[in-house]
Amino acid sequence: MLRDAEATSEHFDPAGRSSQGRQTACDHALTVLVPAFDEESRLPTTLTGLAEFLDASLIDYRVLVVDDGSRDATAAVSAHFGRRFSTLRLDRQRGKGAAIRRGMLAATGAVLAFTDADLPYDLSALRSAYDWVQRGECEVVFGARDLRESQCRVRRKLSRTIASATFREVAKRLISREVTDTQCGLKVFSRRAAWEIFSRTVVDGFAFDAEVVLLCHRLRLPFRRIAVTLINEYGSTLSLSRHAWRMFCDVVRVGLADRMRRGRVPPVREWPETPAIEGDRPRKAA
Question: What is the pLDDT of residue 2?
Fold first, then answer.
């Protein structure tokens, strides 16, 4: 069900300091990010599903919708779900990678996760991954569709299956031979790991996942993989015709840049100030 990373002697605190000595501000246990672009119609169902699952888990959680410059009323949906739900709104569409980066650097949970706006995976994997990070057993958990225990309960298009296998092989050669499913849309991080990784990412599009995996390796963050169950794929916004070539080019650039650095950790980048989170307010622990 899982695969451990390289062993390290240090025990990591999910709410610890970054390498820059910057104190992380944690005021709850778990933040779940949901990147969204023009998701007004299906986002209510997604947020309802998250609320039902997380309420039952008894975790002190928040859900942060990251609106990637939507043209519809996506940004207003979270206001109907109570104090645990809020929206971070970007000024224009920048890409899924940029949206996740902004959300990760703005979120204030001790453990941070993201999943897709159509909730493609059974959420039991999210709970298990949270527990591992919260207990300090690892700093990052990558969802995986290619483990023996992984399940697929939907019929995938042949073209998407072929494209996924091709991308996986490219990523395996350039990014990681251990994390062979870089693109699974369920990933969980300690707050420290999220800062260390996402303060360094540069890919704004769908291939950002591969860059995250590579940075996890270079930063020597302990990780695990967890089997996921794919329960729907009807809502994927990834278009093979519009995004496949750019994803391929982004992964090649990330891999080549890593080779030019000879495996050294890239520097922390400076990003514009994170937009205000709508619906955010001072919070007390549940």
Answer: 40
**Spatial CA neighbour of 32 closest among 110, 148, 92:** 110
Asked if 6 contacts 177 with a C-beta cutoff of 8 angstroms, the reply is no
- DSSP-assigned letter for residue 272: P
DSSP-based helix, strand, coil % in the chain, nearest 5: 35, 20, 45
Class of domain 27-262: alpha beta
Query: Cα separation of 24 and 259, whole Å?
Result: 31
What's the length of the chain?
A: 286
Q: What is the pLDDT of residues 11-63, one digit of tens each?
A: 445 554 444 445 457 899 999 999 999 999 999 999 999 999 999 999 999 99
Using CA atoms, how far apart are residues 230 and 244, in angstroms rounded to an integer?
21
What does the alpha-carbon distance between residue 106 and residue 116 come to, in Å, rounded to a whole number? Answer: 18
80 backbone dihedrals φ, ψ, rounded to 5°: -90, 0
pTM of the model: 0.86
Q: Output DSSP code: residue 223.
A: E
Please say whether the beta carbons of 238 and 157 come within 8 A: no
Strand 140-144 vs strand 223-227: parallel, antiparallel, or unpaired?
parallel
Give the pairing of strands 61-67 and 85-89.
parallel
